[in-house]
Amino acid sequence: MAEVTYERYEGPEAAGQLDAFLPAYEEVYADPPYCEGPSDVAEFIEHYRRQLDTRPGFRLVLARDAGEVVGFTYGYRLPADTGWWGNLLEPMPAEFARETGERTFAVIELAVRKPWRRRGIAAGLHALLLGGLAVERVTLTMRPEPEAAPAQSAYAAWDYRKVGESHPWPEAPVYDAMVLDLRAGSTPRGSDAYTSGTSSSGSKEKNTTRASSGAP
Prior knowledge:
Layout: E1 4-10, H1 18-29, H2 38-54, E2 59-65, E3 68-77, H3 94-97, E4 104-112, H4 121-130, E5 137-142, H5 149-157, E6 161-166, E7 175-181, H6 206-209
């Protein structure tokens, strides 16, 4: 395999990259515990395009091997009217859940294709996604099933902590809600050579936008 390279796209730049990483998305999320089919993929495409248009600070990072997309991640800042914290089964204190549009960056997807796992690619994607962000914290939601154990281990190694459980809509599974505190000004872990294994987080903010949150 050739050396893996990374590309970051900001805001509108990310719009033209959907077709580049969609095959990787379909491949990763066809496996358990996600088991996504064509209707799920169509829904993902719809929400990705909507998020590009409505979410502040949108960022996409692609990992390529000889030009082929082998991993991807994206996210954005939570808007002031987000329903993200309202999806938690146990309410959070008002100050914790307060958003300004500048306070919290949400990682929505982080995935690496099987043949390229355990090479530190997830760590590289994570580091470039968060690089230079002027936010207090990062959040994501994560599937708790045993099949997602490598991702769980990765996030723990990167200093994420569980703050609750999120149930974004009635038919959805229950996710672990995770937070990484950046207020100390330290470099987020994941910028080293940590190898994470499978790194698909299942952190779909489409889960949040279905809540009665005032979000688009």
